[in-house]
C-alpha cells in the first residue's frame, strides 16, 4: 500500500473506535481479503491513575469530548459538562462497566415501528455472540464472546449492597438472579470486567485483532466530513495529528456516537436544508432528523453517609441494582446503588459528603419522553456544537422521576438500609412529602447520564424523521452507514454499552 495517505484506498473506513466502531473494525477485518481503516479522534489508552480506578467509577475528564450541554430545550440556562469518551474504546473505556442488555420490549418496539429485522428473537444471538457470561450457561447467554460478563457472588457483597437487596424485599420488589433476563426485580449487577478492571471494546475486540495486516488503526485522527461523488460516499476528510488527510473507501461507516455522528453528517451535507445552508455546507441529502430526537436517561441522586466501618475505599462501586415498573405499567425506572464512593475519586463531592466515604442511590428514568437536539454550528470541528438535552421538558417525565425519587427515599429509609447508614444528605422528608417542593427539587437536581441516542434514528424512508434504514444505510445516499447509539430509535430500558456492541455485531454480519 502506498505511504501517502492521500492515495490510499480502503475497502472499509470506520469513523470512531468506541463501543460500536472498535467492534465493527475487529469483526470486518476477520476477512483477510478486506482492508479496514479505523479512525479515532482520541488517544490509544487511558493513563494512570484512571486505569486503576475502582470498578464502576466513570472517567469524566481527560479522555472525553469537553462539550457543554444545556439541560433544557434552549441554549441558555442550566448547563454542564457533557463528556462522552474520546479514546480507543470510546465511552466503553470511560464508563461505569455496567453490562446490561436492552430488553425484549425495546427491540420489539423497533420492529413494530417499521424495522421488522429488529425483533428480540433476531437480536438475541448477537447479544450472545458478544459475551462470555461467567454465571449463566443457558440458551440466552453467551459463552464464547469477547466481552466478559460477571455478577458479584453473594459473599462478595459489601454490607450496603446486602442491605439494599433486603430493603428492596421490604418494599415488595422481587429478587432476580439475572438482570439480563428479568425485566423487573432487584439483584446483582452484571459488569464487563476482569480482575476488577473495566474491559472496553478496545480491550475485548481490538487488542486481539491489532496484529492483522489488513487492519489499520489511526488514533488522534479527527474526521471532519464524509467525501461524496454525487450521492455516493467515497471517503473522509480528517485531521491526523493536526495534518489534513483524505482517505478513500468503498464503504464509510460512522461510529462516532450519539453526539458526534450527527455533527459529521451535518458537516458532510446531510441534514435539514436550511440548517445546512446556514452552516455554508452544500446539501447532499435532506434528512431533517439528523441531530434531532436526542434522548438521554435522566436521574436523581440521593447521597448518604454510612455508619463507621460499613464502607471501604477501593471496593467496587456497583454491586446491585433494581429495575421497577412505573405504577402498574412497563419497566421504566432503574435504581443503582454505588457504595464506597470516596471524595478523592470525585473531588467536587467532598463538600456534599462532608469529606467522608459516601453511599449513593440513583433513580434513572429509563423511558423518558423528553427529547433534545445536537447540531453543528459551522462547517468544521473547530466550531463547538450546540447540545440541548431537553431534560424533563415533558411533564410526564417530571412526574415519573418524582416517583423514582420517592422510591429512593423509601429505600434509604427501609429498616435494612438505616442499619448501615448514619444520615441522608440534602434531601429531607419534607421535600419528599410536599409535591411542589419535590417537583422543584427534581427539576433542579436532575442530571443527565451521558447516554445520548436517537440523533440519526433508524426507520423506514417514509418516516421523514428517520436517517438510516434497518440495515444501517443512510437514506438517499450510497456507501454510507451509521452504526452507533445515534440510530437507536427510542431510549433503551438499560444503559447502552452492550446494545451498541450488539448493533456492531449485527452490522458486521450484514456487511461481511
Ligand atoms: C461517563 C459514562 C458512563 C457510562 N456508563 C455506562 C455503563 O456503566 N454501562 C453502559 O451500558 N453504558 C454506559 N454508558 C453509555 C455507553 O458507554 C455508551 O452509550 C456507548 O459506549 C456508546 O457507544 P457508541 O459506539 O455509540 O459511541 P462511543 O463509544 O462514545 O464511541 C464513539 C467514538 O467515536 C470517536 N469520535 C467521535 N467523533 C469523531 C470524529 N470526528 N473523528 C474520529 N473519531 C471520532 C470518539 O472519540 C469515540 O471513541 C456511559 C457513558 C458515559 C459517557
TrEMBL record:
Q: Which family does the UniProt entry place this protein in?
A: Belongs to the GMC oxidoreductase family.
Which superkingdom does the taxonomy of this entry point to? Bacteria
Stretches that traverse the bilayer: none
Q: What is this protein identified as?
A: GMC family oxidoreductase
InterPro entries per record = FAD/NAD-bd_sf, GMC_OxRdtase, GMC_OxRdtase_N, GMC_OxRtase_C
Q: Which Gene3D superfamilies match?
A: 3.30.410.40, FAD/NAD(P)-binding domain (3.50.50.60)
Keyword Flavoprotein on entry: yes
Keywords carried by this UniProt record: FAD, Flavoprotein
Organism encoding this protein = Streptomyces marokkonensis
What cofactor is needed? FAD
Task: Write the lineage as a comma-separated list.
Answer: Bacteria, Bacillati, Actinomycetota, Actinomycetes, Kitasatosporales
Pfam families to which the protein is assigned, alphabetical? GMC_oxred_C, GMC_oxred_N
Asked whether the UniProt record includes Glycoprotein among its keywords, one would answer no
The Glucose-methanol-choline oxidoreductase N-terminal domain sits at 85-108
